[in-house]
From TrEMBL:
Superkingdom of origin: Eukaryota
PANTHER family recorded: CASEIN KINASE-RELATED
SUPFAM superfamilies reported in the protein's UniProt record: Protein kinase-like (PK-like)
UniProt name for this protein: Protein kinase domain-containing protein
Keywords, in A-Z order: Membrane, Transmembrane, Transmembrane helix
Chain ranges passing through the membrane: 169-187
Length: 261
């Protein structure tokens, strides 16, 4: 038996969703444990020769009961409707697949998604749990603005609240996104966003390095393999810093009453 980690508000009236408090923020150890469990599930899917492309909190479930061990090692994927065999030959244009909230920028750009995009979606999930919201939450279905803000995610408060190890994973994964941000402005965005980008002054050294990464993205194929073991290790380091003795207790609100429905 499995318990869904996330439920619609009407299914869980005492909380905004299953894995979340009323203030939308959950403890860092729990957020990181779920992140590790989700990445392990995606790694298993990747070993089977597939990429998910539809990573969202609502598409995962945990083995009953939701203990620490089951969260770390027993999370499963419940929706594989968008999964594709991987690696595959990149198509010239791919219709949008995923969610505006959690999909990586590549999905908005009409590019083929790979394992790195699945991991980036998990990082967005963890950032939302730690910060309480993602920077583009209030933008609704304005895809151009969502895409623009996702491109600058590394400069947001939500990103800065991530553990250092997770920030490092995200920046590492940037080099696996094959479309340069400058090209997106020319191809995807309106002249309004081009003017905004032209006004930016990349004077900070860190920003210059990030800009150089974006300029080189064309050279990298989306089918580049990802070392899931390394990614899980980095998440594990972040978890060990916040729960070094493994004493964190799973909160009672994570449990749901079993019904006959």
């Amino acid at each position: 038996m499995f318990t869904p980690l996330f439920l619609k508000p009407e299914k869980c009236p005492n909380a905004r969703n299953k894995l979340g408090s009323l203030c939308r923020v959950i403890p860092a150890p729990l957020a990181l444990m779920v992140g590790v469990g989700c990445i392990r599930a995606l790694a298993a899917l990747n070993r089977a020769g597939y990429v998910n492309r539809f990573v969202t909190p609502y598409n995962f479930a945990v083995t009953n009961p939701p203990t620490r061990e089951n969260i770390l090692h027993g999370i499963i994927i419940t929706d594989l409707s968008a999964a594709l065999p991987w690696p595959l030959k990149p198509r010239v244009f791919v219709p949008f697949i995923g969610t505006y909230r959690y999909s990586s920028v590549r999905a908005h750009w009409g590019r083929e998604q790979g394992p790195s995009d699945d991991i980036i979606s998990v990082i967005f999930m963890v950032a939302e749990w730690l910060h309480g919201k993602l920077p583009w939450r209030s933008l609704g279905f304005d895809e151009d603005r969502i895409c623009f803000i996702k491109t600058y995610f590394y400069k947001t408060k939500a990103f800065k609240k991530l553990p250092r190890e997770i920030r490092g994973v995200y920046k590492y994964l940037l080099i696996f996104l094959p479309l340069a941000f400058a090209s997106v402005l020319l191809i995807k965005h309106t002249s309004k966003y081009i003017r905004i980008a032209s006004a930016e002054r990349f004077t900070d050294c860190a920003e210059i390095r990030i800009w150089e990464i974006y300029r080189k993205m064309y050279e990298v194929a989306c089918t580049t393999a990802i070392d899931f073991k390394w990614v899980i290790g980095e998440f594990g380091k972040a978890l060990n810093k916040r729960d070094p003795n493994g004493e964190y207790q799973i909160p009672s609100w994570l449990l749901i009453e079993q019904t006959d429905e």
